[in-house]
């Protein structure tokens, strides 16, 4: 079972916390939350993946779509807390060059403040 | 006196026989159709007439919203009720029954604090008395059935409650059957769609393998689709007798969208390689095309290798794809080909895809594969992994066919008993 929750960090930013496997079947739930935020032109979207141990290419495509959407209005979509297995998926497919990825929420927020 | 008593008993017996006949009729209705709306309508029509009520309704809990929604409403304002009425769990008489799971007789609805007036206010109907029973499937409340206002003006009795509860059980069963049927149909439809995806996928793969009249090379490839059909593909581009292109790709996602994306990409790739011979320029063009066409974040990881068949020189580019494996027959080693790879195609429009060159020696193999191979899991959840792959490939192979078939068999053996989530695709090229 997938659990997706959101939390405002300030007026401009939202953290999406995902828990569970993100695959073909569960990624539409993640997509709904991301698209909801990009429709509202949320400036900074931070995706907490610390409780995701498996992500397939459908899950990655959902994040790519989010990234493309925020790009249209100059927003940011940042990932943090990737577990080793998920990090490997990003590294093997060179998607670590596409996304901004940070070890934890604090580092991600520090980067945004810069 | 005795005669009067006998007549009354006879009347009660007749009523009971009538009730039993109605219940038999209801079970016949339930078995006659699997259309949910039709079956509930028919059963409630029967219930309303047997209970001698002015109106009746069935409300079902919408699992997504948690609200009680009207599925069927009969009586003079039935259509209005069906369109407008939605209750929270706990709201109104139906909401109370849905919350507690208890049946309820309400002799005088307007004076009952639980009664929701909005139904009467919106429809102009005058509710006097209500009999409501929960609809329960496997200890789970799925909705509420109600009959409203006895035609003779009297409140509903305990006998009515008993009979209507039996109706309620029948309705719940009918709903469960119809839902199960709908689920089976949807599943069947999905399976048909997956079959269509598999046909699309297969029809775009090369039906024959390139051959060399001068015995310069041998090539073989195979894909073993997963149940859910991934977006793996391979292709061969035959320029002239001196050059051969090898393409291996994996489209994000699964099922029909991935199969269609792959089908279009294979056509585009064949087209662009006709007008563009440079490996990196081809990828740049395809990438821009996919970004423009981009939908729902879909992308593709891809490897493109152009082999010079005279010299054994390869030009390799990778768009986020797994590295190819180089098996050096003479030295007996087996290593991934390190390429300064680019990101998957379809994401960053301005990306320039670098290439690298690799000289093959006679007898060497180059093996391309998709992540289904190294990510295949066994029953303990362990992955086949790159190190197991390299270890397996590092031996002498009779031919590319031998290598590809053996590797797929090995991965299937490794993951026997565990579900195959992704396609398994392997392509092997040998410079003879």
Largest sheet of chain B: 6 strands, antiparallel
Q: Please give the oligomerization state of what you see.
A: heterodimer
Q: Give unreliable regions of chain B as ranges.
A: none
Strand content of chain A: 25-35%
Number of discrete domains of chain B: 2
Q: Roughly how much helix do the residues of chain B carry, as a percent range?
A: 40-55%
Q: Cα distance, first to last residue of chain B? A: 113 Å
* Domain unit count of chain A: 1
What form of chain B results from the Cα inertia axes? elongated
What is the N-to-C order of secondary-structure elements of chain A (H for helix, E for strand)? EEHEHEHEH
Report mean pLDDT of chain B, rounded to a whole number: 89
CATH architecture grouping of the largest domain in chain B: 4-Layer Sandwich
> Gap between N and C termini of chain A, in Å?
36 Å
Please, could you describe this protein's structure?
The complex is a heterodimer of chains A (114) and B (432). By secondary structure, chain A is an alpha/beta fold. Chain A has a single domain, classed as STAS domain (Transcription Regulator spoIIAA, 2-Layer Sandwich), CATH 3.30.750.24. Chain A has 4 helices and 5 strands; from the N terminus they run E-E-H-E-H-E-H-E-H. Chain A has a 5-stranded mixed beta sheet. In chain A, strand 3, helix 2 and strand 4 form a beta-alpha-beta unit. In chain A, helix 1 runs parallel beside helix 2. Chain A is globular, with a radius of gyration of 13 Å. The model of chain A has no long low-confidence stretch (mean pLDDT 92). Chain B has 432 residues and is of the alpha+beta class. Chain B folds into 2 domains: 182 residues, 2-Layer Sandwich (Beta-Lactamase), CATH 3.30.450.40; 228 residues, 4-Layer Sandwich (Phosphatase 2c, domain 1), CATH 3.60.40.10. Chain B is built from 11 helices and 16 strands. Chain B has a 6-stranded antiparallel beta sheet with strand order 3-2-1-6-5-4, sandwiched between helices. In chain B, strands 7-16-15-12-13 form a 5-stranded antiparallel beta sheet. In chain B, helix 1 runs antiparallel to helix 2 and helix 6 runs parallel beside helix 7. The longest helix of chain B has 46 residues. The mean pLDDT of chain B is 89. Chains A and B meet through helix 2 of A and loops of B.
